[in-house]
Amino acid sequence: MSTFDQTYELADILMENATKEQLAECARVLALNLAHHQIKHGEVPVDQTLALLRTFEPNEEHLDLLVDGMVNLIGVLLNVCNGSGETRH
User: Fold this and answer.
1) Maximum C-alpha span of the chain
2) Rounded Cα distance, 34 and 44, in Å
3) What Å distances lie between residue 44 and 37, 51, 80, CA to CA?
4) Residues 4-63: pLDDT tens digits?
5) pLDDT by residue (tens digit) across 62-77?
6) SS3 of 3, please?
7) Hey, is 86 helix, strand or coil?
8) Angle between helices 46-53 and 60-82 (to 10 degrees)
9) Alpha-carbon dihedral sign for residues 31, 32, 33, 36
10) DSSP 19-45
């Protein structure tokens, strides 16, 4: 759980320091990533994703998914805020 807490905290810090435009660009990139995933693998049920975020005691699989999601968010935020354009998500 501490890995998730750390990634969540880092994502919060990056979002606090990002401009509105950078956050909008981040949302666009993540939306395109989701669309790509949906085309390849099918719809991602938003209600189940939201329920996972609200789970008080997630299991190992849930924690892995949550950490991977935060790592994706961090990667896109760093990419957008630094303007490198080189990070893969």
Assistant:
1) 37
2) 8
3) 8, 13, 24
4) 899 999 999 999 999 999 999 999 999 999 999 999 999 988 888 888 778 778 888 888
5) 889 889 999 999 999 9
6) helix
7) coil
8) 100
9) positive
10) -HHHHHHHHHHHHHHHHHHHHHH----
**DSSP label of 79:** H
What the block records as the tokens of 67 is 């950490």
Structure tokens at 79: 């990419």
Q: Record the tokens describing residue 60, joined without a space.
A: 């190992």
Amino acid at 77: L
* Contact criterion met (CB below 8 Å) for 74 and 11: yes
